[in-house]
Amino acid sequence: MAVGIFGRKGSDEEYMELEHREEEKVRARIPLEIERIEVFDDSERVQEKLRDGRILMIKIKGLKEKDIGELKRAVNKIKRTCMALNGDLAAIGDEWLLVTPPSAKIQKTLDE
């Protein structure tokens, strides 16, 4: 009998069926939640979600347009919580923050 491309005999190949595990793929997904900060008190809700281990995209445009001082206080509050939990925080443009728990790391690159 002839040897095939991968060194196997032509008709004597054995196959093993693999199980399809789509359920495991769904469980492995990590949710990303969208939040919005319109007033300083909204930072409490964000802190709680961060403590629960959630990854958050936070739209800060509303509070930025209303009161930049309150926005700075809210971001500092969230930042302190993030640091205490060993999480990560990054600004995305002027209108969004990305905040992660310790289980996720933000890979930051600088524009050159």
Written account of the structure:
By secondary structure, the chain is of the alpha+beta class. The chain has a domain at about 35-100: Translation Initiation Factor IF3. About 35% of the residues lie in helices and about 20% in strands. The protein is built from 4 helices and 4 strands. A 4-stranded mixed β-sheet has the order 1-2-4-3, covered by helices on one side. Helix 2 links the parallel strand 1 (about 30-35) and strand 2. The N and C termini lie far apart (about 60 Å).
Mean pLDDT, rounded to whole units? 84
The side-by-side strand order for the widest beta sheet comes to 1-2-4-3
Q: What is CATH's topology name of the domain at 33-100? A: Translation Initiation Factor IF3
Q: How much helicity do the residues have?
A: 25-40%
Question: How far do the termini sit from each other?
Answer: 61 Å
H and E string: HEHEHHEE
CATH architecture tag of the domain at 33-100 = 2-Layer Sandwich
Low-pLDDT segments, ≥5 res: none
Kindly name the structural category: alpha+beta
Helical segment count: 4
Shape: elongated
CATH superfamily descriptor of the domain at 33-100: SepF-like protein
Biggest sheet layout: 4 strands, mixed
DSSP strand (E) fraction?
15-25%
CATH class of the domain at 33-100: Alpha Beta
